[in-house]
Write a structure and sequence with these properties.
Phosphorylase Kinase, domain 1, Aminoglycoside 3'-phosphotransferase, Chain: A, domain 2, 14 helices, Transcription Regulator spoIIAA, five-stranded antiparallel beta sheet, 47% helix
Length: 389
């Protein structure tokens, strides 16, 4: 039996079939290998394993008693189904052998907070995560997508996980679907339809009570302020803390990153494709995220909006205003201005905190962006008694 030993970790390479005919020899070989190295941790590499019966699974259970952190890696789809069906995926670390996908020549059709979305075929897109250790994020997003789907929110559920370079991706089937960003870039006259469909999605989301497993956005907003509090003078910091703390807790479902690159249009139906940012809270948070996508991220450099959304800053802002008008059911410019200002306070705080989080606050561009956000926030909060609308 082939094995590799390094830094107190033993990897044993399984192969062929394990059934009642050879299970005793299988267990004997593993036992002899383990006794030879006396490792602290054990990994079973199942890349060449074609089949394993219940008898073989009992051997693995015995090993788990000795090595509680045992992992089975590079598991084929067929073997993974057996492990999943028997509950092994719930009691130990099981990693599938993921097929490799190359997106070097694929077009980018969307972008979210945690990943890039590529079209890899006429009917397939893949979301590639920016974090190389994203398997847990992928599992979480899949569960969030299923939760949203069951609750009646139109979303796509990934059907496969693949390796893309050093990271991982989720694969979705999208027959000839286009993002709202693509539709708007093709024809600016699509703006009204896109605004209406975006608001329809928002209304569906905001009419849904979030389950208990969905993060609270209020906790996140307070964490942003905690990270950024040194940027503000004492007076403005106290006012900002009061305004954010005064936002009431609500169980309203929020998308958390709703913009034209995260919405697909398929056969006359709109679908959300980036669900790992799902959260709950007052709708002002959702409007803050939308404000950022169409204006906030370009507060110091409007061309940043063009680079991100592939449309002009002017068109993006026009879309923002139309979304606000439809969502608020008003044509009053004064009312739209009021809610935009409230959304901008939270949105720009998020932008400011992002600069600090990635360590660019001392770079010229980072300092420029921080000052732009801070100055605008200070002006806004001087005239606000609440961020609620």
């Amino acid at each position: 039996m082939k094995a590799d030993y390094s830094e107190n970790k033993l990897t044993i390479f399984l192969s062929g079939r394990v059934d009642t005919a050879n299970v005793f020899a299988f267990e004997k070989d593993i036992r002899e290998t383990v006794d030879m190295y006396h490792p602290e941790s054990l990994v079973l590499d199942a890349a060449a394993l074609d089949f394993i019966s219940s008898a073989g699974l009992r051997v693995i259970l015995k090993l788990r008693k000795e090595f509680p952190d045992i992992a089975v890696i590079n598991v084929s789809t067929d073997v993974y189904e057996v492990l999943e069906m028997t509950g092994f995926t719930e009691i130990m670390k099981i990693e599938k052998a993921y097929r490799v996908l190359n997106v070097a020549d694929c077009s980018v059709v969307g972008e979210g907070a945690n990943g890039m979305i590529y079209r890899v075929g006429r009917d397939t897109i893949v979301k590639v995560y920016k974090d190389a250790s994203a398997l847990e994020d992928i599992k979480r997003e899949r569960e969030l997508s299923r939760t949203a789907f069951i609750l009646g929110i139109p979303t796509a559920i990934p059907y496969d996980v693949v390796r893309v370079g050093d990271s991982f991706g989720s694969v979705f089937e999208m027959l000839d679907a286009k993002t709202f960003a693509e539709l708007l870039a093709e024809d600016a006259n699509n703006l009204e339809m896109i605004a209406q469909e975006t608001v329809k999605l928002m209304k569906t989301l905001h009419a849904t009570d979030a389950p208990e497993n969905i993060p609270r956005q209020s906790d996140t907003a307070r964490a942003w302020l905690k990270e950024a509090e040194e940027v503000f003078d004492k007076g403005h910091l106290m006012k900002l803390k009061y305004l954010i703390k005064s936002i009431p807790e609500e169980k309203t479902m929020l998308h958390g990153d709703l913009h034209i690159k995260n919405i697909m249009f398929l056969d006359g139906e709109t679908l959300l494709i980036d669900m790992d940012t799902l959260c709950s809270g007052h709708p002002i948070y959702e409007l803050a995220f939308i404000y950022n996508a169409y204006k906030g991220f370009g507060v110091a450099d409007p061309e940043e909006v063009r680079r991100f959304l592939k449309i002009s800053p002017e068109l993006a802002y026009k879309l923002l205003r139309r979304i606000l008008a439809l969502y608020l059911d008003t044509e009053s410019e004064e009312r739209i201005d009021e809610v935009e200002q409230k959304a901008s306070v939270i949105g720009l705080l998020r932008v400011l905190r992002r600069v600090i989080r990635i360590g660019e606050q001392n770079a010229p561009e980072g300092q420029k962006l921080i000052n732009s956000c801070k100055n605008r926030i200070n002006i806004m909060i001087e005239n606000l008694d609440t961020l609620v609308f």
